[in-house]
Amino acid sequence: MMYRSHRRVVQFSVLVFVFLVPVLNLFEIYAVTGTLYAVNIGGLSVTDPVVILQAVFASGRLTVLLLGAALFPVLFALVFGRVWCGWMCPYHLLADGAAEVRRFFGERVLRRPLEKALPVKSSFKANAVRLSFLLFGTALAGAISIPVLNYVHAPGIFSTEAMIFVKERSLSPEFLFIAALLVMETAVLPRFWCRLFCPTGSFLSLFRAPFTMTVINKVKAVRSPCCTENHCSAVCPMGLAPFKEGGNLLCTNCAQCLDACPQSRLHFGGFGSK
């Protein structure tokens, strides 16, 4: 089964949704409102759990309303892992585009493949950096009562800019943050934001259970690549070795490794079956 086409359909559907919501609101259709910080669908509120986390630290109170708004994303992550990142996040789609541009210039313009210049190659160190960033940002939000992580929330900023563009035909200065990230992704450090800083991805990755979907290798206790070309590691955007790190917190279940595996040894399964 090739997952790439299905993933692209989901990614572009979310992208359309981001622009469709303000268009509907312009026509005074308010069945759906909000941005990817918090969206209301027919009275159901779904909020980014990091937004809730900062609010809890700032107020010192966890209400039923706040808990309910964050419940769906958390339960979704418990079942499907970080598919929000790999399949739904609009910034991840932009980062995919940046990777294609980088590959085009490396292979067609420079006539040589560009190495994955990952800022931190060790998955352990990458996880430590991004979880530390989440912890620091949350603590700072609680200390100064300002949701500081919202100012670096790439999907939330993108959806807010989409709303501003649709309603006012302009962009706010926050758009420069997204533009700067994409320049860095393309020209300097590919995937650095998703691997090292994204607070939402970091928070959602912490929710694991025996039934949580993850990449499984049919070959048990494997320590070396299943094939000499190491196809799965070559395509992993998070810089993992999927043949042995499918359950890593960095994995977004994007399924690129499953598509690339020539022997079909990788598949989705429960985290507890590793």
Quickly list its features:
8% strand, mainly alpha
Could you give the topology of this structure?
Blueprint: H1 4-26, E1 32-34, E2 38-41, E3 44-47, H2 49-59, H3 64-80, H4 83-88, H5 90-109, H6 123-144, H7 154-168, H8 175-187, H9 192-196, H10 199-204, E4 213-217, H11 231-235, H12 242-245, H13 256-260, E5 266-270
Antiparallel strand pairs: 1-2, 2-3, 4-5
Helix pairs in contact: 1-7, 2-6, 5-8
Q: What is the number of helical segments per DSSP (H or I, 4+ residues)?
A: 13
**Into which percentage range does the β-strand content fall?**
5-15%
Helix content: 55-70%
Q: What about the largest sheet?
A: 3 strands, antiparallel
Q: In order across it, which strands form the biggest sheet?
A: 1-2-3
Total strand segments: 5
Work out the radius of gyration: 19 Å
Mean pLDDT: 90
Secondary-structure element order, N to C: HEEEHHHHHHHHHEHHHE
Terminal Cα span: 21 Å
Detail the poorly predicted runs: none
Choose one word for the global shape.
Answer: globular
- The structure class reads mainly alpha
Question: Can you describe what's shown?
Answer:
- This protein is mainly alpha-helical.
- The protein contains 13 helices and 5 strands.
- A 3-stranded antiparallel β-sheet has the order 1-2-3.
- Helix 1 packs across helix 7, helix 2 packs across helix 6 and helix 5 runs parallel beside helix 8.
- The two termini are 21 Å apart.
Give a short overview.
With 274 residues, the chain is mostly helical.
